Amino acid sequence: MNATIRYLRSATCYAEAPNLWVNVGETPFVYRDLGPQGGVPVILLNHWGAVLDNFDPRIVDGLASKHHVIAIDYRGIGASGGTAPVTIDEMARDAIALIRALGFKQVDLLGFSLGGFVAQDIVLKAPDLVRKLILTGTGPAGGKGIEKVGAVSWPLMIKGLLTLRDPKTYLFFTSTANGRRAAKAFLDRLKERKAGRDKSPTPRAFLRQLKAIKAWGRQAPQDLGRITIPVLIANGDSDIMVPTVNSADMARRIPGAQLVTYNDAGHGGIFQNHADFVPKALSFLAA
Predict the structure, then answer these.
(1) How far apart are CA 144 and CA 146, in angstroms?
(2) What is the CATH number of the domain that holds 239?
Protein backbone atom coordinates (compact mmCIF):
# COMPACT_ATOMS: atom_id res chain seq x y z
CA MET A 1 0.00 0.00 0.00
CA ASN A 2 2.80 2.44 0.89
CA ALA A 3 4.46 1.84 -2.45
CA THR A 4 1.15 2.57 -4.16
CA ILE A 5 0.73 5.85 -2.27
CA ARG A 6 4.27 6.96 -3.13
CA TYR A 7 3.55 6.22 -6.79
CA LEU A 8 0.24 8.07 -6.67
CA ARG A 9 1.87 11.19 -5.29
CA SER A 10 4.04 11.39 -8.41
CA ALA A 11 0.94 12.03 -10.54
CA THR A 12 0.27 15.74 -10.85
CA CYS A 13 -2.89 15.53 -12.94
CA TYR A 14 -5.61 13.06 -13.94
CA ALA A 15 -3.99 12.50 -17.34
CA GLU A 16 -1.00 10.98 -15.53
CA ALA A 17 -2.75 9.10 -12.72
CA PRO A 18 -1.92 5.37 -12.87
CA ASN A 19 -4.51 2.67 -13.38
CA LEU A 20 -4.95 0.69 -10.16
CA TRP A 21 -7.01 -2.36 -9.24
CA VAL A 22 -8.79 -3.61 -6.14
CA ASN A 23 -10.49 -6.99 -5.82
CA VAL A 24 -14.11 -7.03 -4.65
CA GLY A 25 -14.73 -10.70 -4.01
CA GLU A 26 -13.32 -12.38 -7.08
CA THR A 27 -13.76 -9.35 -9.35
CA PRO A 28 -10.97 -6.83 -10.06
CA PHE A 29 -12.19 -3.21 -10.28
CA VAL A 30 -10.02 -0.58 -11.97
CA TYR A 31 -9.74 2.94 -10.58
CA ARG A 32 -7.54 6.04 -10.63
CA ASP A 33 -6.51 7.93 -7.52
CA LEU A 34 -5.40 11.57 -7.34
CA GLY A 35 -5.04 14.44 -4.91
CA PRO A 36 -3.98 14.75 -1.27
CA GLN A 37 -4.28 11.54 0.74
CA GLY A 38 -6.30 11.60 3.93
CA GLY A 39 -9.64 13.14 4.75
CA VAL A 40 -12.94 12.11 3.19
CA PRO A 41 -12.34 11.03 -0.43
CA VAL A 42 -14.57 12.02 -3.34
CA ILE A 43 -15.72 8.98 -5.35
CA LEU A 44 -16.64 9.71 -8.98
CA LEU A 45 -19.40 7.65 -10.66
CA ASN A 46 -19.78 8.17 -14.39
CA HIS A 47 -22.30 7.91 -17.23
CA TRP A 48 -23.69 5.15 -19.46
CA GLY A 49 -20.87 3.43 -21.34
CA ALA A 50 -18.20 5.57 -19.67
CA VAL A 51 -14.73 4.32 -18.80
CA LEU A 52 -12.02 6.08 -16.80
CA ASP A 53 -11.05 8.20 -19.79
CA ASN A 54 -14.53 9.75 -19.92
CA PHE A 55 -14.13 11.70 -16.68
CA ASP A 56 -13.51 15.39 -17.50
CA PRO A 57 -9.89 16.05 -16.44
CA ARG A 58 -10.69 19.69 -15.60
CA ILE A 59 -13.28 18.57 -13.06
CA VAL A 60 -11.12 15.77 -11.65
CA ASP A 61 -8.04 17.99 -11.38
CA GLY A 62 -10.09 20.82 -9.90
CA LEU A 63 -11.55 18.60 -7.18
CA ALA A 64 -8.16 16.95 -6.60
CA SER A 65 -6.59 20.33 -5.87
CA LYS A 66 -8.23 20.07 -2.43
CA HIS A 67 -9.49 16.49 -2.09
CA HIS A 68 -8.49 12.88 -2.44
CA VAL A 69 -10.38 11.88 -5.62
CA ILE A 70 -11.04 8.35 -6.84
CA ALA A 71 -12.58 7.64 -10.25
CA ILE A 72 -13.89 4.10 -10.78
CA ASP A 73 -15.16 1.82 -13.53
CA TYR A 74 -18.30 -0.21 -12.93
CA ARG A 75 -18.22 -4.00 -13.04
CA GLY A 76 -17.80 -5.24 -16.61
CA ILE A 77 -16.86 -1.77 -17.93
CA GLY A 78 -13.43 -0.75 -19.21
CA ALA A 79 -10.69 -2.71 -17.49
CA SER A 80 -12.90 -3.84 -14.59
CA GLY A 81 -13.66 -7.55 -14.57
CA GLY A 82 -16.98 -9.36 -14.44
CA THR A 83 -20.22 -8.80 -16.31
CA ALA A 84 -21.95 -5.43 -16.39
CA PRO A 85 -25.03 -5.43 -14.11
CA VAL A 86 -28.51 -4.84 -15.51
CA THR A 87 -29.83 -3.01 -12.42
CA ILE A 88 -28.83 0.14 -10.54
CA ASP A 89 -29.26 -1.90 -7.35
CA GLU A 90 -26.37 -4.18 -8.34
CA MET A 91 -24.17 -1.23 -9.37
CA ALA A 92 -24.80 0.46 -6.02
CA ARG A 93 -23.98 -2.71 -4.09
CA ASP A 94 -20.77 -3.09 -6.11
CA ALA A 95 -19.78 0.50 -5.36
CA ILE A 96 -20.44 0.09 -1.64
CA ALA A 97 -18.32 -3.07 -1.59
CA LEU A 98 -15.56 -1.36 -3.59
CA ILE A 99 -15.47 1.64 -1.22
CA ARG A 100 -15.19 -0.71 1.74
CA ALA A 101 -12.52 -2.78 -0.03
CA LEU A 102 -10.48 0.43 -0.39
CA GLY A 103 -10.74 0.85 3.38
CA PHE A 104 -12.92 3.97 3.58
CA LYS A 105 -15.51 4.38 6.33
CA GLN A 106 -17.02 7.53 4.81
CA VAL A 107 -16.90 9.17 1.38
CA ASP A 108 -18.35 12.00 -0.66
CA LEU A 109 -20.02 10.99 -3.93
CA LEU A 110 -20.22 12.79 -7.27
CA GLY A 111 -22.52 11.00 -9.69
CA PHE A 112 -23.04 12.10 -13.29
CA SER A 113 -26.04 10.74 -15.25
CA LEU A 114 -26.10 6.95 -14.62
CA GLY A 115 -23.63 7.66 -11.83
CA GLY A 116 -26.22 9.88 -10.18
CA PHE A 117 -28.74 7.03 -10.16
CA VAL A 118 -26.13 4.81 -8.51
CA ALA A 119 -25.14 7.53 -6.02
CA GLN A 120 -28.73 8.04 -4.85
CA ASP A 121 -29.15 4.31 -4.34
CA ILE A 122 -25.87 4.10 -2.39
CA VAL A 123 -27.03 6.82 0.01
CA LEU A 124 -30.37 5.10 0.57
CA LYS A 125 -28.70 1.71 1.08
CA ALA A 126 -25.78 2.87 3.25
CA PRO A 127 -26.55 6.36 4.59
CA ASP A 128 -23.70 6.31 7.12
CA LEU A 129 -21.20 5.71 4.32
CA VAL A 130 -21.81 9.03 2.54
CA ARG A 131 -21.01 12.47 3.98
CA LYS A 132 -22.02 14.70 1.03
CA LEU A 133 -23.65 14.04 -2.34
CA ILE A 134 -23.30 15.82 -5.70
CA LEU A 135 -25.82 14.83 -8.39
CA THR A 136 -25.24 16.09 -11.94
CA GLY A 137 -27.12 15.48 -15.19
CA THR A 138 -29.24 12.90 -13.44
CA GLY A 139 -32.68 12.07 -12.08
CA PRO A 140 -34.64 10.00 -9.57
CA ALA A 141 -36.00 6.49 -9.95
CA GLY A 142 -39.14 6.73 -12.08
CA GLY A 143 -38.05 10.16 -13.31
CA LYS A 144 -39.64 11.77 -16.35
CA GLY A 145 -38.25 10.53 -19.67
CA ILE A 146 -35.45 8.41 -18.21
CA GLU A 147 -36.84 5.17 -19.68
CA LYS A 148 -36.71 6.83 -23.13
CA VAL A 149 -32.95 7.47 -23.09
CA GLY A 150 -32.34 4.79 -25.72
CA ALA A 151 -34.99 6.19 -28.09
CA VAL A 152 -33.47 9.65 -27.68
CA SER A 153 -29.86 8.51 -27.99
CA TRP A 154 -29.80 6.05 -30.91
CA PRO A 155 -30.66 8.61 -33.64
CA LEU A 156 -28.01 10.99 -32.32
CA MET A 157 -25.44 8.19 -32.16
CA ILE A 158 -26.19 7.44 -35.81
CA LYS A 159 -25.89 11.16 -36.58
CA GLY A 160 -22.48 11.10 -34.94
CA LEU A 161 -21.38 8.25 -37.22
CA LEU A 162 -22.71 10.01 -40.32
CA THR A 163 -21.10 13.35 -39.47
CA LEU A 164 -17.84 11.78 -38.20
CA ARG A 165 -18.36 13.40 -34.80
CA ASP A 166 -18.37 11.91 -31.35
CA PRO A 167 -22.06 11.34 -30.45
CA LYS A 168 -21.50 13.21 -27.17
CA THR A 169 -21.40 16.35 -29.34
CA TYR A 170 -25.15 15.93 -29.82
CA LEU A 171 -26.07 14.06 -26.64
CA PHE A 172 -24.30 16.21 -24.05
CA PHE A 173 -24.36 19.71 -25.56
CA THR A 174 -26.79 22.16 -27.14
CA SER A 175 -26.79 22.82 -30.89
CA THR A 176 -25.92 26.51 -30.42
CA ALA A 177 -22.52 27.95 -31.32
CA ASN A 178 -21.75 28.07 -27.60
CA GLY A 179 -22.71 24.40 -27.20
CA ARG A 180 -20.63 23.30 -30.19
CA ARG A 181 -17.55 25.14 -28.89
CA ALA A 182 -18.02 23.54 -25.48
CA ALA A 183 -18.41 20.09 -27.04
CA LYS A 184 -15.16 20.40 -29.00
CA ALA A 185 -13.26 21.65 -25.94
CA PHE A 186 -14.60 18.81 -23.79
CA LEU A 187 -13.81 16.12 -26.35
CA ASP A 188 -10.29 17.54 -26.79
CA ARG A 189 -9.78 17.33 -23.02
CA LEU A 190 -10.76 13.66 -23.04
CA LYS A 191 -7.82 13.01 -25.40
CA GLU A 192 -5.19 14.58 -23.13
CA ARG A 193 -4.17 11.24 -21.63
CA LYS A 194 -1.79 9.53 -24.03
CA ALA A 195 -0.53 6.47 -22.12
CA GLY A 196 -2.34 3.80 -20.12
CA ARG A 197 -5.76 4.56 -21.50
CA ASP A 198 -8.70 2.43 -20.37
CA LYS A 199 -10.39 -0.24 -22.48
CA SER A 200 -13.47 0.82 -24.46
CA PRO A 201 -16.80 -0.61 -23.29
CA THR A 202 -18.01 -3.68 -25.14
CA PRO A 203 -21.33 -3.47 -27.03
CA ARG A 204 -22.73 -6.09 -24.61
CA ALA A 205 -21.81 -4.02 -21.54
CA PHE A 206 -23.22 -0.89 -23.21
CA LEU A 207 -26.57 -2.61 -23.82
CA ARG A 208 -26.70 -4.13 -20.33
CA GLN A 209 -26.21 -0.69 -18.81
CA LEU A 210 -28.99 0.66 -21.02
CA LYS A 211 -31.27 -2.06 -19.65
CA ALA A 212 -30.42 -0.87 -16.11
CA ILE A 213 -31.19 2.75 -17.04
CA LYS A 214 -34.56 1.83 -18.55
CA ALA A 215 -35.45 -0.20 -15.45
CA TRP A 216 -34.53 2.80 -13.25
CA GLY A 217 -36.83 5.00 -15.33
CA ARG A 218 -39.71 2.54 -14.85
CA GLN A 219 -38.99 1.86 -11.18
CA ALA A 220 -41.28 3.12 -8.42
CA PRO A 221 -40.07 6.45 -6.98
CA GLN A 222 -37.79 6.20 -3.96
CA ASP A 223 -38.33 8.20 -0.77
CA LEU A 224 -35.75 10.93 -1.36
CA GLY A 225 -36.87 12.56 1.89
CA ARG A 226 -34.70 9.91 3.59
CA ILE A 227 -31.59 11.62 2.17
CA THR A 228 -30.69 13.97 5.02
CA ILE A 229 -27.04 14.70 4.14
CA PRO A 230 -26.04 17.87 2.22
CA VAL A 231 -26.83 17.55 -1.52
CA LEU A 232 -25.76 19.70 -4.49
CA ILE A 233 -27.63 19.19 -7.78
CA ALA A 234 -26.41 20.61 -11.10
CA ASN A 235 -27.54 20.33 -14.72
CA GLY A 236 -27.94 22.24 -17.95
CA ASP A 237 -31.29 23.82 -18.74
CA SER A 238 -31.64 21.74 -21.95
CA ASP A 239 -30.77 18.17 -20.95
CA ILE A 240 -32.32 15.82 -23.52
CA MET A 241 -30.97 12.57 -22.02
CA VAL A 242 -32.19 13.00 -18.42
CA PRO A 243 -34.64 15.89 -18.82
CA THR A 244 -33.77 18.88 -16.66
CA VAL A 245 -37.16 18.76 -14.93
CA ASN A 246 -35.75 15.78 -13.00
CA SER A 247 -33.10 17.97 -11.38
CA ALA A 248 -35.78 20.34 -10.08
CA ASP A 249 -37.84 17.35 -8.92
CA MET A 250 -34.91 15.96 -6.88
CA ALA A 251 -34.22 19.40 -5.40
CA ARG A 252 -37.82 19.61 -4.20
CA ARG A 253 -37.82 16.13 -2.70
CA ILE A 254 -34.40 16.11 -0.98
CA PRO A 255 -34.47 18.28 2.16
CA GLY A 256 -32.20 21.32 1.87
CA ALA A 257 -30.78 20.38 -1.55
CA GLN A 258 -29.03 23.12 -3.54
CA LEU A 259 -29.82 23.38 -7.28
CA VAL A 260 -27.60 24.92 -9.97
CA THR A 261 -28.93 25.17 -13.54
CA TYR A 262 -26.71 26.34 -16.40
CA ASN A 263 -28.17 28.31 -19.29
CA ASP A 264 -27.70 27.14 -22.89
CA ALA A 265 -26.32 23.84 -21.64
CA GLY A 266 -27.37 20.23 -21.99
CA HIS A 267 -26.65 16.94 -20.27
CA GLY A 268 -22.96 17.87 -20.02
CA GLY A 269 -23.67 21.20 -18.37
CA ILE A 270 -20.97 20.69 -15.73
CA PHE A 271 -18.38 20.00 -18.45
CA GLN A 272 -19.38 23.09 -20.42
CA ASN A 273 -19.28 25.17 -17.23
CA HIS A 274 -16.44 23.44 -15.39
CA ALA A 275 -14.84 26.79 -14.50
CA ASP A 276 -17.98 27.68 -12.53
CA PHE A 277 -18.93 24.19 -11.35
CA VAL A 278 -15.61 23.22 -9.74
CA PRO A 279 -15.49 26.22 -7.34
CA LYS A 280 -19.15 25.60 -6.45
CA ALA A 281 -18.42 21.92 -5.77
CA LEU A 282 -15.32 22.75 -3.71
CA SER A 283 -17.28 25.29 -1.67
CA PHE A 284 -20.06 22.76 -1.11
CA LEU A 285 -17.62 20.06 0.00
CA ALA A 286 -15.81 22.46 2.33
CA ALA A 287 -18.92 23.93 3.97
Answers:
(1) 6
(2) 3.40.50.1820
